[in-house]
Design goal:
alpha/beta, Rossmann fold, six-stranded mixed β-sheet, four-stranded antiparallel β-sheet, 15 helices, disordered C terminus
Length: 462
């Protein structure tokens, strides 16, 4: 019974986790919008009904097994009591026992059944509880990828010199006989066999899903290197632009600088220190980053800005908002800085979220700025405002920008051109165009149209 209930308990937790994951995906702002845009309401309702029915069925099955177990214990105690009185009555009639002796036996037997039932039930409850502990320990046993060295050095104020020394990186780095990164998670239960589970614990459904996963893993093995032998140096105060086709490794470079990942090979140096020898807090204090996906908490604009520096004054917060050219917009809102932005900031436009994110990093006042496609979601007017603000903010700071706009590239002191994880070109706009390499090709296909549009605007203004 304990084994059966343990199995049912484990399946119940898995089904509940799967149902909650479906709810989180489809009922958040982005998921609900996607469902409506593609008209998949009935499909999602049927999917949720299926998940909920499995949770219900496994709950009913667990309850039935438990009740049968307790029913069996009750029947045993009832039969025992009946046997005592039936046999005792016969012995009383034959004069062997007195009535008082039989009544005493019945009382003793009742007192004995309580502890016996409790002792019998303890292993069952323990087995079910162990399933919860297994899932907790699964999370606790996940190895920490980024560890701070016990003798790590604190860097109060960085000068901003960044060096990539033969850096290679793979999202599928192997640790012993296991793989971590963009691979399927291997879950290990106590006493369970090693099993690779698909998304949300679903195994192969017989429709070729496992074959698809094998194909994806084979392709991932062929493309395992996100960066290969990358070498460059950014001097303090320089503005460096990262360009290249999609999947070239630009974002990976920006993730290695604040040590969101450790390089598989080579070294990332900050002011001559390997970043693995520095404390994580000092890295965080010296590096400010605006990521591809601007994330705002379901909170007020004020609290989202103060997340960068909780001790910042209102004057400093307003100054940062003005530098990002978002203060005027906030001032026009009914609640001003106390306006709630909604889940992930959905009540704001993409450009407004972007400018709030930039104001947040300005308020942090780091020595190093990393802007990962920070201007890619802005209209022309917003981009002009942001470019003007960033030119002031970047003065005296080391800045690395993933650039998709020609104006950002032309303002850079140095351009790094990435392709398939390798640094293929480095230099200024003029020199790279003269070389006729990948940058010149990207300029012709991606940036030349931008130049033509700017010229047309100038003609119209004249």
């Amino acid at each position: 019974v304990a084994r059966k209930l343990r199995f049912l308990r484990r399946r119940s937790l898995e089904f509940n986790a799967e149902m909650n994951a479906s709810m989180n995906e489809t009922l958040n702002v982005s998921g609900a919008l996607l469902v409506k845009l593609f008209g998949r309401e009935k499909r999602e309702m049927a999917k949720f009904a299926d998940d909920a029915s499995r949770v219900r069925d496994i709950g009913v099955q667990s309850a039935v097994v438990s009740q049968w177990f307790f029913l069996s214990l009750g029947i045993v105690s009832a039969i025992g009591t009946a046997v005592v009185y039936w046999g005792g009555g016969h012995l009383v009639l034959t004069g062997v026992f007195t009535i008082g002796t039989i009544v005493a036996f019945g009382a003793y037997l009742t007192q004995l059944y309580g502890p016996l039932i409790s002792l019998t039930n303890a292993p069952v409850e323990f087995a079910q509880s162990m399933v919860s502990f297994e899932r907790v320990f699964e999370a606790l046993d996940i190895p920490t990828e980024i560890k701070e060295s016990p003798d790590a050095t604190s860097l109060p104020v960085a000068f901003g010199n960044i060096t990539f020394d033969h850096v290679s990186f793979s999202y599928q780095e192997e640790y012993g006989d296991q793989q971590w990164g963009l691979t399927e998670v291997t879950r290990l239960g106590w006493g369970a066999d090693r099993t690779t589970l698909l998304k949300r614990g679903k195994k192969s459904n017989g429709n070729g899903e496992s074959d698809v996963m094998d194909l994806v893993q084979e392709q991932a093995t062929d493309q395992r290197w996100a960066l290969q032998d990358v070498n460059f140096t950014i001097e303090p105060g320089e503005l460096v632009a990262l360009v290249g086709p999609s999947g070239a490794g630009k974002t990976t470079i920006t993730y290695l600088i604040p040590r969101l990942y450790d390089p598989t090979g080579g070294h990332v140096l900050l002011d001559g220190h390997d970043i693995r020898s520095l404390t994580l807090q000092s890295l965080s204090n010296n590096i400010g980053m605006v990521t591809q996906d601007t994330y705002l908490f379901y909170d007020t604009i004020r609290n989202n800005l103060l997340y960068a520096r909780e001790d910042a004054s209102d004057a400093e917060m307003v100054s940062a908002a003005k530098a990002a050219n978002i203060h005027d917009f906030i001032a026009e809102l009914t609640d001003g800085y106390d306006t709630v932005v909604g889940e992930r900031g959905y009540r704001l436009s993409g450009g407004e979220r972007q400018r709030i994110a930039i104001a947040r990093v300005i308020l942090k006042d780091p020595q190093i700025l990393v802007l990962d496609e920070a201007t890619s979601h802005l209209d022309s007017l917003s981009e002009a405002l942001i470019q003007d603000a960033l030119q002031r903010v970047m003065q005296g700071r080391t800045s690395l920008v993933i650039a998709h706009r020609l104006s950002t590239i032309l303002a850079a002191d140095k351009i790094l051109v990435m392709d398939k994880g390798r640094l293929v070109e480095s230099g200024t706009h003029v020199t790279l165009l003269a070389n006729g390499g990948l940058y010149a090709s990207l300029y012709e296909t991606q940036f030349r149209n931008e130049t033509d549009v700017e010229r047309m605007k100038e003609v119209e203004e004249i």
